[in-house]
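Figure caption, in words: inputs first, then the predicted bound structure.
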Amino acid sequence: MSQGRSPPEVSTPRLNLRAPSLADAPVLGRLADDAGVARMTTGIPHPYPPDAAEGFLDRIGRADPGRQRLFAVEAPDDGFVGLLGFHPNAEGAPELGYWLGRPFWGRGYMTEAVRAAMVWAGGAWGKRFVMSGHFADNPASGRVLIKAGFLYTGDVTPRFSVARGETAPTRMMVWLA
Ligand SMILES: CC(C)(COP(=O)(O)OP(=O)(O)OC[C@H]1O[C@@H](n2cnc3c(N)ncnc32)[C@H](O)[C@@H]1OP(=O)(O)O)[C@@H](O)C(=O)NCCC(=O)NCCS
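Bound structure (coenzyme A present):
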């Protein structure tokens, strides 16, 4: 992965958001291989194939850094605990996605990570708005986004989840710089 195209490090009181590396693949693959994680995302398959993490990290490393950025979320003592990323949606607008390994849920980590990532996105990355969304049956993610300053747009749109093998109603949200 080319470090020159990587995001800068973003620090929060408890976490470090840094460029992911291929060395994260084993732990990423282990934490992602969880139906409770995968079913709340559009793109994570379940079960998680053995070589999927390396392929994913390799593709991200070659993405256009003006349009797509991925951070590994790192916690003290635990190291890699999850991922947070911005990618262009079907309309080309930046869209936020994230997941945390199950052992690390419920500590306020993702709220802390998203808040810091939005400061970076509106500041150093220069974005004026960011979209996101959560499946209607994932209120915890809705809480994270609300606490990080996202607002519901009112749109509820069906989005396909690879792990579910079907679409799920998705509550869309927007963050304004
Ligand atoms: C959603 C996820 C990122 C939350 O991460 P986290 O670090 O545990 O979140 P936080 O601790 O910062 O905040 C969770 C909030 O959800 C709330 N919550 C948790 N479970 C809930 C539930 N079943 N119903 C309603 N709220 C719930 C918590 O109370 C907390 O809100 P509060 O601070 O207002 O009390 C994590 O559970 C995860 O990765 N899940 C699987 C993947 C996923 O859902 N990704 C997002 C796709 S849109």
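The mean pLDDT is 95.
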